[in-house]
């Protein structure tokens, strides 16, 4: 059994403090995508992954993974660094 020793935060709280995110699609390789590099530098990108149980969770950093989705926020996610984001509500995300 694997235990997670990280703090969690609700997605609604992140949206309340960092603004409504928009979905970000990788059309270029991450190292040459200038907008993505800017978002990473300013701590404004979140990686959404699916757990083994099928529920979505977020990481407040860019993690290049197969099947991951990315969200770009208008404000910095620095207050949520090293936290696991739970309760992803896709209705709060701009397309």
Describe this structure in words.
The chain is α+β, with helices and mostly antiparallel strands and 95 residues long. 17% of the residues lie in helices and 26% in strands. The protein has 2 helices and 6 strands. The protein has helices at residues 11-18, 34-41, and strands at residues 7-10, 22-24, 45-50, 56-59, 69-72, 83-86.
Give the overall form. Answer: globular
Distance between the termini: 37 Å
**What's the number of extended β-strand segments?**
6
Put simply, the count of helices is: 2
| Residues in helix, % | 10-25%
Q: From the alpha-carbon coordinates, what is the Rg to the nearest angstrom?
A: 13 Å
Which regions are unreliable across 5 or more consecutive residues at pLDDT < 50?
none
Strand order of the largest sheet: 1-6-4-3-5-2
Overall pLDDT score: 90
The fraction of residues assigned to DSSP E strands is 25-35%
Order of helices and strands: EHEHEEEE
Structural class: alpha+beta
